[in-house]
Amino acid sequence: MRNSVFGVCFSAMLLASQAAMAQCPNPQAAANPLSLITNRTWTFTTQAADFGPNGAGSAGRFTATGSGTSGLLTITGSFSDGNGGVTRVTSMSGRFQVSADCSGGQLSFSFSDQAIQYEFVFASNFSELYLVSTTLSGVQGSPMGDAGLTAQVPSQAAFSGATVYVGRAKGLTSTGCPAGVNPLSVLAGTSWSFQTQAIGYAGGSPQSASVGTFRATAPSTLSIVQTVNTSGSVARLASNSGRFFVNADCSGGDLLFNLGGNPSQFSFFFSDNSFSEMVMITDNTSSGFYGPQFLLGIAKRQLSF
Which domain holds residue 192? Predict the structure, then answer.
């Protein structure tokens, strides 16, 4: 009888372990699920998903350290608060944990006196994260104990009253500039196709989106062609110049589009290992073609135009 009970218990434990392994990609991840996050730098974008906030969103990068049940995030990004304010390329802290079965977990971004907690699931063979907010808090930070992230009471004042945020993150296995390469050379001589769209859905405010191309030439000049639709007012194939800057660590930089005499400046962050993709967010309040909004965008490098 004892042997029978022991056998049943052992079988149950074995099945539970096998179930975790079935989701985790390798024995290392099964033993330490946090390693799925800590082994990479992640480029992310987020945006308000409820109908009301005008321009609340973010783009940036985070790295993770930790072991056991939870870890720490170091975050660098640009953030639009939805009230006409933008914080450009700032650093902040956060926390994270990963579920024992490696299906997903939680991230907490602590920004100024606000904190947003996200639930995430892994996608694309654990190289991407899909995010949805679960709490907003009007307190500094978001404490995490051994049991996980501490739930906070949602604050309607947080980020222009937005209560729903969605986002994505993509993992990079290498960072830094290529050996012996000047940071500006990462962009100089390359051609890109891009798309931007307004963040938020505030009634009465102009809504904008665009598609276009830009070519970066030495030392730091952009040649831009884009079509912009602002609440039905369309500017087709508008051409103008701009400028670019690349951070010393080649993590990203700035793009300045001088369209119609109204500059729109983007912070950008490379989102792959070969410097061929980037995410973008406007970090100024110039009206430009876009109206007084903030835009999120993506761009991909092309062989030629």
Answer: 183-302
pTM: 0.81
- Say if residue 167 is in the same domain as residue 195: no
Say how far apart CA 86 and CA 200 lie, in whole Å. 14
Instruction: Decide: helix, strand or coil at residue 250.
Output: coil
Confirm whether 9 is domain-assigned.
no
Per-residue pLDDT tens digits for 158-202: 444 557 889 999 999 888 999 999 999 999 999 999 999 877 554
Q: CB–CB of 136/152 below 8 Å?
A: yes
Looking at residue 215, what is its pLDDT?
96
CATH number of residue 201's parent domain? 2.40.160.90
3-class SS of residue 9: helix
On whether residue 85 sits in a domain, the answer given is: yes
Residue 87 sits in a domain whose CATH number is 2.40.128
pLDDT, tens digit, 9 for 90 and up, residues 75-92: 999 887 666 667 788 888
Q: Select from 138, 172, 206 the last residue of a domain.
A: 172
Residues of the chain by 3-state class (helix, strand, coil), percent to 5: 15, 50, 35
DSSP one-letter string for 128-195:
EEEEEEEEEESSSS--EETTEEPP----TTGGGG---EEEEEEEES--SPPTT--GGGGTTT-EEEEE
